[in-house]
Design a protein that fits this description.
alpha/beta, Maf protein, 7-stranded mixed beta sheet, 6 helices, 7 strands, 24% strand, binds inosine 5'-triphosphate
Length: 200
């Protein structure tokens, strides 16, 4: 079976990868960082999703000698000039939580009318192979930031990210629904189309 190290500490991302692979019938063992013995802190200091995705996948590929994939993702809000973007995980500062990040986002947008609250989630997957080759797969998903939380599923900014087509926030969707139109689901679909890169 295909063995892939997944260079993330975010368990929600890992379960979304697992369920997308399952839904697409891809048999692969996804090995989380904690099972590799890697204990260094990875400094994500690039100013792009691609840059940070490369830093994470490269570190785990070099450490394990195995193929490694990473996911760098975030929320880009038009009225905030694309923020929080690559800083989404730590938007509300040191010790940020999903709740504190949402609170800060809603506060920043408090005077912005609904018609100007467009946003998109972006996900860049980087695949690094031990031979030094790397590829990037990008997925995006458009939505609107609503002014109160709806739903308690999923993670991160999901409770305030509303998809007009589904009349639901990501947090109100089943995992299958979210995977079918999310930034991560779309990037994983491209990853699966490039599965030869992982197996050749
Ligand atoms: P790793 O770096 O270990 O993968 P992380 O959570 O720090 O974990 P990122 O640096 O890529 O990952 O930051 C992504 C942040 O963007 C994440 O913590 C959420 O706040 C947000 N985010 C990304 N995808 C999301 C999704 O599907 N739903 C809600 N929020 C999401």
């Amino acid at each position: 079976m295909l063995k892939i190290v997944i260079a993330t500490n975010n368990n929600h991302k890992i379960s979304e990868f697992r369920s997308c692979f399952e839904q697409k019938g891809i048999e692969a063992e996804l090995i989380p960082i904690k099972d590799t013995g890697f204990t260094d802190e990875i400094i994500e200091n690039a100013d792009s999703f691609e840059g940070n995705a490369y830093i994470k996948a490269k570190a785990l590929c070099e450490f394990t000698g195995n193929i490694a994939i990473s996911d760098d993702s975030g929320l880009c809000v038009d009225a905030l000039g694309g923020a929080p973007g690559v800083y989404s995980a730590r938007y509300s500062g040191e010790g940020a939580t999903d709740d504190s990040n949402i609170d800060k986002l809603l506060c920043e947008l408090s005077s912005v009318p609904p018609s100007e609250r467009s946003a998109r989630f972006v996900c860049v997957i980087c695949v690094c192979r031990p031979d030094g080759e790397a590829i990037y797969l990008r997925g995006e998903s458009e939505g609107i930031i609503i002014d109160e939380r709806r739903g308690d599923g999923r993670f991160g900014y999901d409770p305030v990210f509303y998809c007009p087509d589904m009349n639901k926030t990501f947090a109100e969707m089943t995992s299958e629904e979210k995977n079918s139109l999310s930034h991560r689901g779309r990037a994983i679909e491209k990853l699966i189309s490039n599965i030869d890169f992982l197996t050749e």
